[in-house]
Design a protein that fits this description.
about 250 residues, single chain, alpha/beta, 4 strands, globular, four-stranded parallel beta sheet, 3 domains, 11 helices
Amino acid sequence: MERKENYLGLSSEIVSNSDHQLQEKLALLCRVVKDEKIGIMQIDLQNRDHPLLIYGYIGKKGDRLVSLSNFILPQLSLEQLLQPIALDHFLTQFFALCDYQQQVNQSLSKGALIKFHSRYKYLIMAYSQAAYRELGRYIANLSDELSLDEIASKYQQKLMKALSVAPSRDGQTNALMHMAGYFKRVLNSQQKQEMSQIILRYRQGVVSLSKPYDLLQYWLTIYPDDYLINQRYFSPYPSAFNYLREQL
């Protein structure tokens, strides 16, 4: 199968923006994207002939692109590069879409799709309970009447719809509690209580997402679980942006 490229689209108008802080953030993002072997495509307002190749777009406020593949295209304004929630959301969407292209579309099979969904289970749960249930049913009842291309395309559309709204603290808490359940047989009562309290404090807005996240990561190093370790929830985007969890 022919290899397809992934691209981040940048409005030509923002490349010349003179704000030093914004340009620093943009430069970091571009370096990370290139390190991930993803291309960068500059897009002029009057020339938008490559929407199928674009898996994310950064432009000026109010500037929008529409994907011809019927999935919700991850988009960010330049100003939102300085907003942790918006940037975390965009990066999660963009790298999920690129990951889907690489892991599923480039070697299309039902097995590849099922494996992908399994890795994204708790990330989807954090974003939307309804989407988590819908996608779970979709994967459990893959139709033999549709072609693999149709199946994969519909899943991609459903996935990007699921990730189209940034997760709430309640959604994150639900996913964190489910993942914490993996340790119920190995932690003592005091350790389990500490885990629950930190997740609850996050839900209440007392601590950042990094606190329960780091605690789960710690217990994973002590009591490894392959299924949990491979969850995309723990690496939705490259580690250069892990600092964002301290601000969520």
